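Pasting as-is:
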Amino acid sequence: MSDLFSPFTLRGVTLKNRIGVSPMCMYSCRDDGVPTDWHMQHLVSRSVGGAGLVITEASAVVPEGRITPADVGIWNDAQMAAHARIVAAVNATGSVAGIQIAHAGRKASRAAPWVHGPAVPSWTTMAPSAEAFEGFAVPQAMTEADITTTITAFAEAAKRSVKAGYRFIEIHGAHGYLGHQFCSPISNRRNDSWGGDFEGRTRFVREMAAAVRAVIPNDIVLALRISHTDWVEGGWTTEESIELARRVKALGVDLIDVSSGGLDAGQKIVLGPGYQVPGAEAVKQGADIPVAAVGLITEPAQAQAILAEGKADLVLLARVLLREPYWPLRAAVELGRAPVLAIPPQYERGWNTLAKLEMDKAVAAPMHAL
């Protein structure tokens, strides 16, 4: 039985527990894609909070692949250097730093969510087909040269990620962004070898995964985030997700991060606690591959049950960690696993002297400025 606080090893990487920080865009760059002090404090706060894996937000592999002008990038060496500083700080807390590499496709060139509307100035977007997401600009259909250039950009971004120190690399193929756009028949209307049937529509993601795996060391984890269903009739399905997971597993993908939706404004999602976990379980069982579960996982007992019942191998938390960066510490207390967590000695008195909790401070190293 998997425990929320048991170690988890993939390739040469061991997480101290099964709790991960899901990649969440902060929209806080200065139009250059360089991570800032905001990203540093945001990510390190969650690693100090006890998460075993901390994944940096969707980092664009090319400038035109950004969702907004304020997105993080990993397409040049200046960005790589800023990432390296964050990686060192996260790793110093005992967590593993991960990165999600991404291209927004037809959902690019937008303003921050709290502003709405297109980016100013905007740029031309690209997608498998000239099919717009509702309310967005019509994208240019990608040529074969565009496709191969983009796959190369993912591989180059992966190489920079390795140089920055990341040991967990996730390809973003979910939420209606470029990889997902190729997979879904709703957004991919191509009639060449990059569209049509399942084989054609999944070719981009499969070749992208193979290209990334080929340029990163064997001991680094490669994950793929997918939307297991579009929640729209005639769209991408859970059964197709299972088959895609089988295919990319053979190409060297180690874990499938299973989310859903985001491709079509007509999606009909029934929200509820753990509403996406059945998709994770289906992919895990159907493809025989480790999976991460996401989606309104908010309570420690709920997260523990997902793992104990074999529905997932890892839980990735998002909004609850925006509200409560120290959720893993609370979970350890509530589940009776407090002794397994290492509290930095600078913080120990907040968890032991005042709260009368038995934390194992002996295994925690002091944190120092980098």
